[in-house]
Amino acid sequence: MDIDWGVMLIGLLVIVFAVIRSRLVVAINPEILAFSWVTIGILGGIVTAFLAGGTVISGAVHGGIMTVLASLLDMVVVTFATFFFAGFVPEYGVLLFAFYR
């Protein structure tokens, strides 16, 4: 079975859009933000599996690969954002008003 990289690229674009959207939305509480982070990987996998078409196995393989890639990408973004904005920035007194109001 061949991997359709065009479908994978569309799934990756959906994931990048979801990551950007989740970073722009201000969460009311941490549970909503964490739920948003979890759903990004699942959303990317579902979209990619649907667009792959063909047999169930083909959709499952494409969706599984994209779910793993989406989860890794989201982990990197969340780790960087948490480290930078919650660690570095308040330590040096920049943007303190955004986190301690």
Spans of at least 5 consecutive residues whose pLDDT stays below 50 are 91-95
Rg calculated over all Cα atoms = 17 Å
**Terminal Cα separation, in Å?**
54 Å
Q: Give the SSE string.
A: HHHH
What does this structure look like?
The chain has 4 helices and no strands. The termini are far apart. Residues 91-95 have low confidence and may be disordered. The longest helix is centred in the last third of the chain and has 36 residues, at 56-91. Helix 1 (5-24) runs antiparallel to helix 2 (30-52), helix 1 (5-24) runs parallel beside helix 3 and helix 2 (30-52) runs antiparallel to helix 3 (56-91). The chain has helices at 5-24, 30-52, 56-91, 96-99. The chain is mostly helical.
Summarize, please.
By secondary structure, the chain is an all-alpha fold. The chain contains four helices and no strands. The protein is elongated.
Explain the layout of strands and helices.
Blueprint lengths: L4 H20 L5 H23 L3 H36 L4 H4 L2
Helix pairs in contact: 1-2, 1-3, 2-3
Notable characteristics:
101 residues, mainly alpha, 4 helices, 82% helix
